[in-house]
Amino acid sequence: MKHFLSSLVLVFLFSFVLLFSISYNYDKNFVDFCNNDTDCILELINNGEHYRLCEFANDSDSCFTYVALKNKNFDLCSLTTNKTDCLFENALKYNDINLCKQIEQQDNCIFSIALKTKEVDLCNNSINKDRCFYSYALILKDVEMCEKSEKYKKDCRQEILNETN
User: Among positive and negative, which fits the CA dihedral 132, 135, 141, 144?
Assistant: First the structure.
């Protein structure tokens, strides 16, 4: 019963917010109802067009990142205190190496997508592609893949052979 009433109140509040937030006049009273709870505020935001309500959330970074992820609106990452984390998370979700190229940890981001998608050739987009191929080969314990890492080829082979013996 309590869960039903909470859901009913959220639906009512959500409908109320949609009616009055068209003018982008974000009334703090709506957010006060949520006691700045991030999950509650996310219910109010709906499809992302009222993303400014995230400013009132206890964890505004998570709120903005969630809305950015849900709506593929990567510009919202600039509203977080850590734009890099937001872009990294979006890059991983959408396997988008172009987002990786906007952050300092570009190589880590590209490598993570290469591992996730099992597309080793994405390492060619990395600034330090030798390191990317080397790391990929070590994780897969693939001596042949060590060949793609010119700089670390010998170390790569040796490390894999030592682990397998």
Answer: positive
